[in-house]
Amino acid sequence: MNEQLLTGTLKINENNHLEIGGMDTAALAAKYGTPLYVYDVAQIRSKCRQFKAAFEKNDFSYQVAYASKAFSVLAIYQLIQEEGCSVDVVSGGELYTALKAGFPAEKIHFHGNNKTVAELTLALENKVGCIIVDNFYEIDLLNALTKERNQRVAVQLRTAPGINAHTHEYITTGQRDSKFGFDLENGQIDQAIQKVLENPLFDLIGVHCHIGSQIFETEAFTHTVDKMIGLLASWRDKYGYTAKVLNLGGGFGIRYTEADEPKEISDIIDAVCQEVVQKTGEYDYPVPEIWIEPGRSIVGDAGITLYETGSEKDIPGIRNYLAVDGGMSDNIRPALYDAAYTAVIANRATEPAEETYSIAGKCCESGDMLIWDIPLPKVNQKDILAVFSTGAYGYSMANNYNRIPRPAVVFVEDGEDALVVKRETYEDLIHLDQLI
């Protein structure tokens, strides 16, 4: 197996089993059942601290806001609060969960391209730290709500900066043809700032952008800095407005397979900070506070999913299918994005590969495939397959297709395990249903 995939506390123990957080994965599967999401808490803490340390080394004012759409449950909000980070939420449900976890409202940033009146009201009632305004419709809604409540609110304007980062078309968000934000090129963003500045209850603290996800090129981020500082300088000259905050979003890539080559966190932040200093110097513009929104890069490679192997279908000369007890109901990314993963037989981790398998899910869909053509040891029924780097957009995108209950979630740290999300039961599946 590729040692590069053994991030954080992942290692092979003396029993030739995969271990995470000091816990044997085969023992975790036996205790909690499969499929099972397992999170390395120490790895999550480390990622948060690396982002913060990088900004502090550059002597920058900053906020690291965990993009909680990557993984949103009570326990992760508690952990992020312990690490002194902010969070961003994109729905009333995420906001509600963060608040129920006791997360400080003033450190919550509220995103979304179609926030409802009820969601905005919830944000205002709880005095969230910032609302990132996405469109003219939202400006009008928020304008009416703040006046009705006579409540001042901090806002940022989200812009689409026209940068097409090298990533999958469905997770590229910074280009002009996007559902998110005000267009930078056609003048929409200038119309938006004028409307926002007209309302004295809006505290326009800065501007936001996000150019996509799973980005490996540092140049994509520095190019974004160039465009955004230029925009801020033009606003100063045209409207007499100086931004306190430049929010550069997230999108920092992680390693899913050997083909992925993510940059070190410190290298990206160093490059961003240096570019901010250079461009603000060119425009004689005050250095703003920098906000970023890492989600995947904080939890993605901190999570693994454990499955039990089941049926095999060998088609000689074509393919050998190996089925597991999960699939697109707990990881829809391969079906949605053609996302690539790699895996290991957790209870026989270093045994040499003997056969090539394609890992099939159990959903009644021919497209329910988790991994195509992976070399593994000869697999036995009821072996434990561990799929790496499933911490982001696994549980948060899990579903009940085919009435399959969603898996449990376990946190592990220093040889201790904690159940943070119970496994759904069949009764859970029908508890909202009504007979007629």
Automatic annotation (TrEMBL):
Q: Where is the Orn/DAP/Arg decarboxylase 2 C-terminal domain?
A: 37-391
Name the residues that bind substrate: R296, R333, Y337, E365, Y393
What are its cofactors?
A: pyridoxal 5'-phosphate
Q: Which residues form the active site?
A: C364 (proton donor)
Which Pfam families did the record assign?
Orn_Arg_deC_N, Orn_DAP_Arg_deC
**One Gene Ontology term from the biological process aspect of the record:** lysine biosynthetic process via diaminopimelate
Can you state which reaction this protein catalyses? meso-2,6-diaminopimelate + H(+) = L-lysine + CO2
Provide the binding site for pyridoxal 5'-phosphate: G251, E293, P294, G295, R296, Y393
Q: Which residues form a coiled coil?
A: none
Q: So which domain of life are we looking at?
A: Bacteria
> Belongs to which family?
Belongs to the Orn/Lys/Arg decarboxylase class-II family. LysA subfamily.
Indicate the quaternary assembly.
Homodimer.
Note the HAMAP family from the entry.
LysA
Protein name from the UniProt record: Diaminopimelate decarboxylase
Q: Which organism is it from?
A: Trichococcus palustris
The encoding gene is lysA
